[in-house]
Every structure is written in structure tokens, then in C-alpha cells.
Amino acid sequence: MLSSHSCLIQTQVILFFVALYLVAVGQGGHKPCVQAFGADQFDEEHPRERKARSSFFNWWYFGVCGGGLLGIAVMSYVQDNFSWALGFGIPCIFMFFALLIFLLGTTTYRYTMKTKGESPFMRISKVFAAAFRNRNATLPIVCDNEHLVQESVPNDGSRQFRFLDKALLPSENSSRSGNICSETEVEEAKAILRLFPIWATTLVFAIIFAQPQTFFTKQGMTLDRSIGSKFAIPAAAMQSLTGICIITFVPIYDRILVPISRKLTRNPAGISMLQRIGTGLFISILTMVVAAVIESKRLNIAAQYGLTDLPDATIPMRIWWLVPQCILFGIAEVFTMVGLQEFFYSQVPTQLRSVGLSLYLSIFGLGGLLSSFLVSLINKASSRGGGESWFPDNLNRAHLDYFYWLLACLSAIGLALFIYFAKAYIYNKERFLYNKVI
């Protein structure tokens, strides 16, 4: 009987982990594709629909954060007070109806028709391969009657990554016309290459993105969370405050700030995508500065009341002190996250838009890993030689304020590099005519 019970438990554990992995696989296919598909429903050649597509990314993120907030608030209550089975079952039912509604619209969707010829991956790979083969060649002013290598138009994207222009030249082992990449193919490769400096300089924001779920929550656990005499706010509930801020600020941004800035800049989107991302990066610096100051205050109060060596004691400081950093971070998300989504969608070849959004998602996947690596590195370095670690189990002896100041400094460096690359960035004009350089 015991053996049968153990076998049942083991089967349940296996099914549970299989379900988790299926969710991960589903998210990996769903997240980048469904957003690209939604944005494809807008005609980028039509001025009104092009403007509406910019708003789509705002309301997309509004829906994602609103759904997450509803899930945390409602499903956690159902799971704690009724059953986990019901807590998982309700989302399952909603997902079934969501899929049904999605399928009902199949005949009304716009589809991007795949053009004949090589896949975009092959075209771009061919350009890099051809440029590498011709790496020792000298670029003339004009290659032949078709391919202009040294353009005369200033601020054209062709002026960047000139080494790829060597793909326009015939290789030594080929005929004059054989194996020559077209100018369009070279520009596609340049468009992909231009994305990586922006991708790299936003990684620090992704590290900051990992903090509300970790250290912000740990800070809240040490503070006075009581409301009245019987109820205490869960520390993790402070994450909901960021979600509330996002779903509150998105309509303000889309319906108030964009029309105002549109009149000033004459840009249908209000401000360019890179300007929007840069604004969010700047606000994230302010978030870390505020978080560092509040954490310093928390440590001082703990020392003042003799609670430094009492990790389980409640510090006489209200949890509401964490509200400013949560609100600032929510505003930073509205600017940076939505800006990055729109940027990586619009600045890649049409057939690679899902890949572009996957590249955007990779920022935050790698950022989470970098956050863990940075914490481990600092922990090892600060505790070397018997020193006190910045991250001990007793948070009252920790130095999260130092860590937040470090992230603020790294963010400032990242913002400076971002501005440098953003100023040199040339938008893909064919797909986003109305944006200007930051």
C-alpha cells in the first residue's frame, strides 16, 4: 500500500514538472509570435493605422500587466482559501475560451505573405560570408552600374558598417555577376547589426528589472506591514503596486502625454522609440537612487532601535516607504519595456519580426542571469578575508544600499553608452518612416 502511494506521488511530481516545462515551451512560442502577429494587423503604409500600431504596444503591455495583476490578486486568494486545483483550473478555462475566440477570428486576420526566394537567415548569413571572403578587397566609389558603395546622401544607414559593403563585390573565385549580394540584402544585414549596441546597453535595465521580485520584497518583509490590528500586507503584494502603476500610467501616456508631445515634435508617436527607451533608462536610475536612500534610512532605524542583530524583528518603519521606488519602476517599465518591444519589432526585416521580439525577450532572460551572477560576485568579493558580505541572511546587516548605488552607477554608464549609440542609429526608414534619430 505504501509502495502504491509513493508511486502515485512520484507520478504526480512527474506530471507537475512536465506541465511546467510545457508552460515554458508554450511561452517561448507564444510571447514573441502573438505580439508580432497583433502588430501585423496594422497597415504600416497607412498613416492612421501606423499611428494606431504605436498605441497597440502600449495597450498590449497594459493587458499583460493587468492580467498578471488580476492573476496575483485573485488566483493567490483562490489557491490559499479553496484549492490549488481550482487555482490552476480557472486559468485553464479562460485559456480555452481565449483560444476559441482567437480561432474564430482566423478569417479576418491579415497575414504577411512569405515572399519567394531565400529565407532572411540565409540572405543575412550570405552577406556576412561574402564580406568575410572579400575582407582584403578595396572598396571603390562605384562597384558597377547597379551597386553604389560610397553614397552621397548624409545620415544614410549605408554609411554604417561599411565593411559589409564588400559583399557587393564579386569574389576572386566567382564571375563578375555571380555570388554578388544585392544592396537590399546588405542593408538587411546592417539593420540587424545596428540592433546589438542597443540590445547590449539595455542589459543593466534588465538587471534592475529583477530587483522588485527579490530584494524589494525582502525589504518589505522587515518593515511594519500592519493595517489595523488584524491584517498585515503580504510583502510580495508590493509587486502588485508596480503593476497598478503600469496599468494606470499607460492610459495617461497614450491619451495625454503622446498627444501633447505630438504637437511639439510633429511625430505621430509623440517621441521616437529610442527617446522613449532612453527616458525609461533615466527613470530607472532615479529608482535605484531612491531605493538606496530608503534602504539607508531602514538600516539607520534598525540600528537606532537596537534591531541590527534581530533579523526576525519588525523595524518601526512603515512599508509605505517602499511605494516611491515601486511607482518609479512602474513608470520606467512603461517607457522602456514598451519602447523596446516596438523597436525590436519594427527595426528588423519583415520576416524576422518574431525573431526581433525574441531578441527583446532575451535582454531580460540574460539580465536575470547577470543579476544572479553580480550578486554572487559581490557576495564573494565583499566577504573575502572575513569581511561582512553585502548580502547576509540578516538583512539588517546587509548593504543593499551599496548594491542599489552600484546599480545606479552602472545604469548611468549604460545610459551614456545608449545615448552614444542611439545618436548614431539610423532607423529602418522603409518600416518606420516617421521616427527620427534620438
Task: Describe the structure in your own words.
A hairpin with a 3-residue loop joins strand 2 and strand 3 (231-232). The protein folds into two domains: 2-111 and 202-424, MFS general substrate transporter like domains (Growth Hormone, Chain: A, Up-down Bundle), CATH 1.20.1250.20; 120-191, no CATH class. The longest helix has 38 residues, at 2-39. The strands form two sheets. The protein has a two-stranded parallel sheet. Strands 2-3 form a two-stranded antiparallel sheet. 64% of the residues lie in helices and 2% in strands. It has 438 residues and is mainly α.
Provide the succession of SSEs.
HHHHHHHEEEHHEHHH
Class of secondary structure makeup: mainly alpha
CATH topology of the largest domain: Growth Hormone, Chain: A
Strand order of the largest sheet: 1-4
Choose one word for the global shape. globular
By DSSP (H or I, 4+ residues per run), the number of helices equals 12
Averaged pLDDT: 81
What's the Cα radius of gyration? 26 Å
CATH architecture annotation name of the largest domain: Up-down Bundle
Query: How many domains make up the 3D coordinates?
Result: 2
The CATH homologous superfamily of the largest domain is named: MFS general substrate transporter like domains
Query: Mind describing the biggest β-sheet?
Result: 2 strands, parallel
The strand count comes to: 4
Question: Gap between N and C termini, in Å?
Answer: 70 Å
CATH class of the largest domain: Mainly Alpha
Strand portion, in percent? Answer: under 5%
Q: Poorly predicted ranges (pLDDT <50, ≥5 residues)?
A: 142-155, 430-438
Helix content: 55-70%
